[in-house]
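ESCALATION

Customer reports they have been waiting on this structure for their group meeting. Please prioritize. Original submission:
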Amino acid sequence: MVVAVLVTVLAVRRAPAAGDDEPALVAARQTVTDLLTIGPAAAQDTLARLTAGSTGEFACQLAGRSAGFVGAIRDAEVTSTGSVVAAGVAEHGPGRAVVLVSANSTVRNTQSPRVNPAGTGLD
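Update from on-call: job pushed to the front of the queue and completed.
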């Protein structure tokens, strides 16, 4: 199955100083790229990077769903390639920033021979 996906992710990242958006933008872009770019051989490493780079509600969601993550990727032979289209800081706070990220992803797996476009989002 090949799926083209547009994802919008809300990520809270620590920013070293108010008004300095670049570190938060870099961290959010990398986390989304890690989330959307995965394959069976590197699934465990990807999960480790995601866990290390996650904060707030997303970190809680990831921790709650990580038990079967690597096995599911390997069993279905999922290969996903993602790229960030745009990112911007939506909100600043003391030592933090809320970053909106828009990204595209193409997903292939052994479950379906058809190409089906789908949209997804994170809870």
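Sent to customer with the following note: The longest strand covers residues 79-93.
Escalation resolved.
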